[in-house]
Amino acid sequence: MALTAIALVTAANLGKQVQLIVDGRSVAMRTFADNVYDLLDQADVSVGFGDTLYPSGQDDVVDGAQIIVRHGRPVTVTVDGRSITRMVTATDVAGALAEMAINHAGGRLSVPPEGALPASGLSVFTARRVYVVRGSVRRETVTTGATVGEVLKQEGVRLRRGDRVSPALSAFPKDGTVIRVVTAMPQHAIPIQAAVAKLNWAALAACESHGNPRAVNAGGPYYGLYQFNLAMWQAVGGTRTPNVWPAAEQTYRAQLLYQRVGGRWQGQWPHCGARLFS
Q1: Position 137 in a domain
Q2: Would you say the pTM of this structure is higher than 0.85?
Q3: Residue 189 falls inside a structural domain
């Protein structure tokens, strides 16, 4: 009986073994504290507004207990250009976004979700549906791009000197944005004769391509309203392929070709050229 009493006194003198975890850092310690608040005083750990504590401060400290403290701190998250500042206790990006109820599924983060939460904050770019229009071609795409320029790069749209883009390249492409790229027209140094301009170019285009400036016939290949092959297109100063240019540019090059060959249309438009005189 006396040995039992001595064992109880010895155990009491040793105190309670607990694990204190503060902002993810764990420390093992022995304590005689009665409740959690007393334990935190002993460890010189403060808890205030915005912090979380488990178990609660008034709970008794028991042997083998795990005491968890997470200090709150303000973090700024910029979502699609709009900044939100909140107090969070998470130390990683995913945890902070969960505390702030920000859904980032399918979006792009400036810091990986498993990464440490930076003091400078982070940016979230959600997935948005936008439209890119160049000439008569309209493309729909889903993007997490931060700027119009990023969207065009993502879509492989190469800009050339003089091209105009709306909205501006630095603008934020919100959901539903229509990005318009207006291709700069080349300078036309050679004038078109009035007699050539008066020919029925619309009838020729209707016969060659059904009036479709984007038409492509893989058999040549032939391109655009007037079904140019690349050699003839380049011979009259055309660049890239005819079908990427507006109808007005294609018509100018066709008229220039007609002038260059002295009206001998049979070589370029043997099946439809007679429509010019209809």
Answers
A1: yes
A2: no
A3: no
Predicted confidence at residue 241, as pLDDT, reads: 93
Residue 137 and residue 113 in one domain: no
On whether both 60 and 29 belong to a single domain, the answer is yes
Instruction: Give residue 184's pLDDT.
Output: 76
Alpha carbons 83 and 80: distance in angstroms, whole number? 8
- Of the candidates 52, 58, 53, 63, the one whose C-alpha atom is nearest the C-alpha of residue 19 is 63
Cβ-contact 93, 141 below 8 angstroms: no
Q: Which helix (H) or strand (E) holds 94?
A: helix 93-99
Domain limits for position 107: 74-125
In a domain, 66, yes or no: yes
Mean pLDDT per 10-residue segment, the chain (278 residues): 42 78 90 93 88 91 92 91 90 91 92 90 94 88 95 91 91 96 84 96 97 94 96 93 91 96 94 95
117 and 140 assigned to the same domain = no
Nearest to 53 by CA among 30, 95, 20: 20
CA distance 264 to 159: 36
pLDDT at 13: 56
DSSP H or E run through 230: helix 230-235
Give the whole-angstrom CA distance, residue 123 versus residue 125.
7
For residue 22, the tally of other CB atoms under 10 A from its CB is 16
What is the CATH classification number for the domain harbouring 34?
3.10.20.30
